[in-house]
Amino acid sequence: MSRFYLTTAIDYANGDPHLGHAFEKIGADTIARYHRLIGDEVRFCMGMDEHGQKVAQTAAARGVDPQTLVDELAGRFAEMWKRLNISNDRWVRTTDAHHRRGVRALIERALERSPGDFYEKSYEGWYCVGCELFKRENEIQDGHCVLHPTRELQWTEERNWFFRLTNYQDFLRAHFDANPDFLRPASRRNEILALMDSGLEDISITRARLSWAIPFPRPTSDGVEQGTWVWFDALPNYLTDTGYPDADWEAWWPAQLHVVGKDITRLHAVIWPAMLQSAGLPLPEGVWGHGFVTLGGEKFSKSSGVSLELDEAITRFGPDAFRFFLLREVPWDSDGAFSWERFTDRYTSELANGLGNLASRATSMIGKYHDGVVPASSLEASADIADAVRRYRAAMDAHLLHTGAEVAFEVVRTANALVAEKQPWKMAKDPALAGELDVVLATMVRYLAASAVLLSPFMPAKTAELWARLGSGRDSLAALDELAALDVSGWKVQPEGILFPRPEAVAAA
């Protein structure tokens, strides 16, 4: 059994979860569930990023202390992920005592091993509180950060500690060359390579007199206590979750995959590897930078006012339909749009009329013609299912979730095409076709079982319901390599119930 340690970006505690957060968590959860499906031991970590100037400002605006704010928001985020069936088994908050101790231990280790990587100087520049970053000239448009156009940039002058990122220019380039899959998809890799080719700059890693932060281990030479820059605090969560610096942390480090948004790939593919190298620790094996979900062409963002009610989107057709739609509609390697029209259309055509209708037809006909027991028939292994499994695994191993969902749904379409061709309700009227009818009914169940397994990472609750209705008598799903030749003879189906009610029925409920 292989170990697979998967993380997402930890969410910043200054507002409620929105569709962009949900897209990342649903995608990462699908990857985690796929790896469990193929037998890996999975560790799946998520959490909250709770320090920094933006949190302090938000708390002040609400008239509460920062800890009260982050406690409230952490609870709301955790409840949302539970509602969406996110299967993370780890939850890190950067205000946790262990995380704070781990961050200080990591910085102290880097200071000891690579003292030349740290220096102090006075600095001035435009600071974006939204990004918690000083911005380069090419990152400013019309006096605003290009990522947070509604926020005012702040001119900041203070003496800080700096990290000599320029020391790692050659190391990082060599690492990218030696590990072409370190940062994916290829578009993100190309962006970061272009950034490195233009030359890296040293970064300020502390803020003077910032109280809502993990204290930096060293004051500056003028005696001013420094707060650790929020990203130097947040990025180590992936490491501190393993137990670092206590015993046995190496059992789960390095992580196999960090899933993050494309706007923070520089932090995860440049700054984080440099921090780890400075401390003499292994680098993560991979980073995936997914794209954005847009609404009317605009990125979902609290600060820019582009949003929809996440609760409304989930309630429309249920959590599993929402999960499926996002990953079916929005490519995992690029941007994509959300629209209510497309949501309704895809739900109707693929889930209600496609998978749901197939399940109802198969179970009702077996109930009518065979008292609910799948007839025994010597089915040959299905070349269609075998091919689908092969292509599904290739897509999911490459984290192309939209392609994996498409391949899984080809099985549903193939089964529906078989039903349309054979018309088993007509075959049932001719006793001479009884044997052929048995083969068709058993084949339908095998296709449904394969669909339940392949779609289970995307729709865990609904596929578990489908698997139970097929009556295999097995508590767990079949393995992928069983599906093409799965023996469904004797399964006792449950014809009652509608897997995916039609939209008009949902609206009337």
Please explain how this structure is put together:
The chain is an alpha/beta fold and 509 residues long. It has 2 domains: 306 residues, HUPs (Rossmann fold), CATH 3.40.50.620; 169 residues, Isoleucyl-tRNA Synthetase, Domain 1, CATH 1.10.730.10. The chain has 18 helices and 18 strands. Helix 11 crosses helix 12, helix 12 crosses helix 14 and helix 16 packs antiparallel against helix 17. It is elongated, with a radius of gyration of 26 Å. The model has no long low-confidence stretch (mean pLDDT 93).
Question: What are the key terms here?
Answer:
509 residues, alpha/beta, Rossmann fold, Isoleucyl-tRNA Synthetase, Domain 1, 2 domains, seven-stranded parallel β-sheet, four-stranded antiparallel β-sheet, 18 strands, elongated
Q: What topology emerges from the helices and strands here?
A:
Blueprint: E1 3-8, E2 11-12, H1 19-37, E3 41-49, H2 53-62, H3 66-83, E4 90-93, H4 97-113, E5 118-128, E6 133-134, E7 140-141, E8 144-145, E9 154-163, H5 169-178, E10 183-184, H6 186-197, E11 203-204, E12 206-208, E13 226-228, H7 230-234, H8 237-240, E14 257-261, H9 265-278, E15 287-290, E16 293-295, E17 298-299, H10 310-317, H11 319-329, E18 336-337, H12 340-370, H13 383-397, H14 401-422, H15 424-427, H16 434-455, H17 460-470, H18 503-508
Parallel strand pairs: 1-3, 1-14, 2-3, 3-4, 10-15, 14-15, 16-18
Antiparallel strand pairs: 5-6, 5-9, 7-8, 9-11, 12-13, 16-17
Helix pairs in contact: 2-3, 10-11, 11-12, 11-14, 12-14, 12-16, 13-14, 14-16, 16-17
